[in-house]
Amino acid sequence: MHGEAASQSEGEARDWVDHRKDPAAWAKELGISREAVDLYLDSDVIDLHIDSFIWTRVFGYDLTKRHDRGLFGASFYSQVDFPRILEAGVTGATWVITTNPARVATERKSTFKENLAQLRSIFDSVSDEFQVVTSAAEYRAARAAGKHGAFIGIQGGNALDVAPDALDAIPDRSVLRVTIVHLTSSELGATSAPLKLKSDAGLTDRGRDYIRRLNEKKIFVDLAHISRPGFWDALEVTDRSQPVLVTHTGVCGVHDHWRNLDDDQIKAVANTGGTIGIMYEATFLGDSKWAGRADRIVDHLAHVVKVAGDDFASLGSDWDGAIVTPRDMPTCLELPILVDKMLTRGLSPSTVRKILGANFLRVVEALRG
Prior knowledge:
Blueprint: H1 23-30, H2 34-41, E1 46-50, H3 53-59, H4 82-88, E2 92-98, H5 105-124, E3 130-132, H6 136-144, E4 148-155, E5 177-179, H7 205-216, E6 220-222, H8 228-237, E7 245-249, H9 263-272, E8 275-278, H10 282-285, H11 294-308, E9 313-315, H12 336-345, H13 349-368
Parallel strand pairs: 1-2, 2-4, 3-4, 4-5, 5-6, 7-8, 8-9
C-alpha cells in the first residue's frame, strides 16, 4: 500500500499520506516553499468541477481505490480518485453527473436518477472520510468531522428537460448546480462549442423556463459551456437575488477561445455575487496540448482578480473531464504548486485563500446557507 497505515471502521489501511504531519517534507517533494504548503493546508480547498464519475460509468473506474496516472500519464483521466483527493488535501468539491446527449430524452430522467443513486452510494461506502453536502453549513460540519465535503452537480441540463416538471426528479437540495448546456446544443439552448448550427443562438423559451425553475428550487445556474447569446439570455431571466456560477472556464483576456469568458461576462458574473472557476485544460488556457504549465492557470485567475476583484475567482479544474492538465501539475497531488505560483506572482495570502475555497463557500452560503 502507498502511504501510511491508519485504521478505519472496517479495519482496512487507507491508501494515502496525511501531509499535515510533515508539511516540510511535502514542500521539499514538490519543490515549493514551506509558506505555500502551510497556507494551502490551512485553507478550504474546494474544486468546482470534478468529472471523474464519467469514467466510473464508462469503464468502471473505481473512485474508492488509488490509481496511478493511467495509460496516458494523467492525460484525459486518472487525475483524481478518493485516496489521492484526501492526500492532496482537497477539502471539498462538486462531483459531476454528466449527461449523455445521445441518449433519448425519455430515458434521461431515469438514467439521471440511477446515476445519482450510484454516486451517492459510492460516497456512502467511504462515509468515514467523505460526506455528501448541500450547503456551506453542511460542508463546514463535514470539515469539522474531518471529512471531505462532496457537493453534487449535473453537467448538461438536458438530463432533465423532457417535461416542465422533470426537475422534480432532483430530491430536495441534493443537487447544488446544473450546467445548462454542455458540448452540444439542446432543447434548452446553444453551446459555445463550434459544432453548432447557429452561432447567434441563445436560450430557447424552454431554457428560460428551466432557469426560472432552478431559481425556485435554489439550484445554481452554471453558465460554463453556454454560447455568449445564451449567457446573456440566462442572466436576463435569472432571479437577480441569486448568484450564478461559471464553474470551469478560461478567460479571453488571457487567451481568446470559444470556451472562455470575455471581460464583460466576468463582470456580469461578479455583479450577481457569483464566482468563476478556472479550469486546467492546457489548450483552453493558451498552451499547446502537451506542454501546459501551471503558471498559465495563474494567468487566468489573476485576470479575473484584475477585472472583477479577488472575491470572484475560484478553482474549477475539470479533472478527469478528458482534459490534458499542465504537465507540472498533472494530478490533484501537485495542487500546492499552484499556491506557490500565486504567491510568487504577488497575490496576497488572503486572496489565495479566497481562490482556494472561500469565494465558493461565500456563494453557496448566499443561496443555500
